[in-house]
Design goal:
This protein has 173 residues and is mainly beta. It has helices at 29-32, 73-76, 102-105; strands at residues 4-14, 19-24, 38-42, 48-59, 62-67, 83-87, 109-112, 117-125, 132-137, 144-147, 153-157, 162-165. Strand 1 (4-14) and strand 2 (19-24) form a beta hairpin. The radius of gyration is 18 Å and the shape is elongated.
Length: 173
């Protein structure tokens, strides 16, 4: 596993005062994007440029951030398309039971309660009330989208990288 974890992607600038538009990839935006926090921008050369969050707000489906020392659009233009990351040592607090970091779930094999292997979790979406886990099927067919709710996700083993689900009617069609 890499030592760096993605917490967002800078997709554009916003306005002229150095704000960047971020598509968040973290369950904890209020913690990750808190004023004074250090994030790292992965540059095109693969280096990690430390930046300190000066401000954070949400606008539509984006998180808008400014960084200390970057006061205008010309200074942040270079960051478009870059990943915002943290070092895994900055993860912080232990999670509650039933909570997981995205990197712990992505790559897990998914089985039904009947033992049928469905595929592997390739992505996690956070569209609203609950996360949606995207499963890349082992065979042909479209990805399977499963809501992370207790009626569907029955067991998660981080150590074994294994998830057991009880598919709802129509989920696997």
């Amino acid at each position: 596993m890499t030592d760096w974890l993605n917490v967002g992607k800078i997709v554009n600038t916003h306005g002229i005062r150095g704000e960047v538009r971020v598509i968040s990839r973290t369950d904890f935006p209020e913690r990750r994007y808190a004023t004074g926090n250090t994030l790292y921008i992965q540059t095109a050369s693969g280096e990690h440029l430390p930046v300190t969050v000066a401000s954070w707000r949400q606008h539509k489906q984006f998180d808008l951030l400014t960084f200390e020392g970057y006061e205008n659009v010309n200074e942040v233009e270079q960051f478009k398309g870059s990943l915002l990351q943290i070092h895994q040592t900055a993860l912080g607090d232990e999670l509650e039971e039933g909570e997981f970091y995205y990197h712990e779930i992505i790559g897990a094999q998914v089985f039904t309660v009947a033992g049928e292997e469905l595929g592997k979790i390739k992505e996690i979406l956070s569209p609203g009330a609950n996360d949606v886990w995207v499963i890349q099927r082992n065979g042909p067919g479209k990805d399977i989208l499963i809501p992370y709710i207790k009626e569907v996700v029955k067991e998660v083993s981080i150590a074994d990288k294994k998830v057991i689900i009880q598919p709802m009617e129509g989920l696997l069609d």
